[in-house]
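Retro notes (design track)

What went well: tokenization of the new backbones is finally stable.
What didn't: we kept losing track of which sequence belonged to which structure.
Fix going forward: every design gets posted as structure first, then sequence, in one message. First example under the new rule, 115 residues:
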């Protein structure tokens, strides 16, 4: 089965080389050698750069909405929707009449959501 554009975008954004440098407690984030200004604080945890879903939505040129009833944050664009479940490793990717469940190797922390 051929992967959809939305899945490809998710794969690309998670695979891009992202550099970060700590200067005076603030983390500078660079995407493809271009400075990316995070609206919310970037965090380094266990050697991994963590960005807010709002900032990831900006990188994907997408809208991010908190869905209280489902306890999820959803990233929407014209190709589909990604739903990140709070306190879980699961993300649902919905596009073109198909829903794919992906498992991340980190947990989405609800307290990290900045609304």
């Amino acid at each position: 089965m051929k992967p959809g554009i939305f899945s490809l975008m998710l794969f690309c954004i998670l695979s891009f080389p992202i550099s970060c440098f700590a200067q005076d407690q603030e983390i500078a984030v660079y995407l493809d050698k271009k400075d990316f200004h995070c609206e919310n604080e970037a965090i380094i945890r266990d050697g991994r750069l963590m960005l807010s879903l709002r900032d990831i939505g900006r990188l994907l040129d997408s809208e991010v909405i908190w869905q209280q009833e489902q306890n999820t944050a959803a990233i929407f664009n014209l190709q589909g929707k990604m739903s990140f479940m709070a306190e879980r490793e699961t993300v649902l990717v919905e596009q073109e009449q198909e829903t794919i469940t992906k498992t991340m190797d980190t947990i989405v922390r609800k307290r990290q959501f900045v609304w």
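Added context from the reviewer: Residues 5-112 form one domain.
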